[in-house]
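pls design
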C-alpha cells in the first residue's frame, strides 16, 4: 500500500512539473539569461543562447565586467507568439563605462525560439538608447572576434543629468 501511494505521488508531481506553460518557460529563460549576463557570468548565460548565436553573443558582451559595468536590468515585457515557437522580450539595461563613469541606458529587443526545456535566444538588438552597451562584431563573418570592443556611452541618461543639477 505504501508503494502504491509513493508511486501515485511521484506520478502526480511529474504531471504538475510537466505542465509549465510556454509563458513561464520563456519568463524563466529571459530572467536567467539577463541575470547571468548582468553579473558577468557570460558562460552561464550562454546556456540560454542558441548554439548558432553563442560566439556572436560572447563577442558583443565581451566588455561586460571590465569596460562596462551593469548597474541594473529591468525586464519590461515578454510575449510568446501564437504558435508558441517564437517569442520576444524587451529589457532595459542601465550601465556605465569604466572610462567615463557616466550612467547610460539601453533598451534591448530579444528574440527567442522554443527548444527542448525552454526558449533560446536567437537575436539581440538595441531598440533604443545608447548602442555602446553591445560591442560591434567585425563584419568579416565573425572570424576575428577578438577585435570586438565595446563603445563608450554616447551620452548620459536623463536621470544622470537630472541628478547632476
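designed seq:
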Amino acid at each position: 500500500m505504501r508503494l502504491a501511494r509513493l508511486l501515485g505521488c511521484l506520478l502526480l508531481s511529474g504531471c504538475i512539473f510537466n505542465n509549465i506553460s510556454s509563458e513561464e518557460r520563456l519568463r524563466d529563460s529571459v530572467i536567467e539569461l539577463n541575470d547571468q549576463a548582468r553579473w558577468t557570468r557570460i558562460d552561464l548565460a550562454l546556456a540560454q543562447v542558441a548554439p548558432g548565436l553563442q560566439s556572436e553573443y560572447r563577442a558583443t558582451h565581451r566588455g561586460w565586467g571590465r569596460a562596462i559595468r551593469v548597474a541594473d536590468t529591468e525586464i519590461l515585457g515578454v510575449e510568446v507568439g501564437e504558435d508558441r515557437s517564437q517569442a520576444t522580450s524587451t529589457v532595459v539595461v542601465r550601465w556605465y563605462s569604466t572610462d567615463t563613469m557616466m550612467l547610460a541606458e539601453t533598451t534591448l529587443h530579444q528574440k527567442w525560439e522554443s527548444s527542448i526545456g525552454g526558449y533560446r535566444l536567437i537575436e539581440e538588438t538595441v531598440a533604443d538608447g545608447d548602442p555602446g552597451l553591445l560591442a560591434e562584431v567585425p563584419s568579416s563573418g565573425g572570424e576575428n572576434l577578438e577585435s570586438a570592443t565595446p563603445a563608450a556611452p554616447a551620452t548620459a541618461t536623463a536621470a544622470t543629468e537630472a541628478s547632476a543639477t
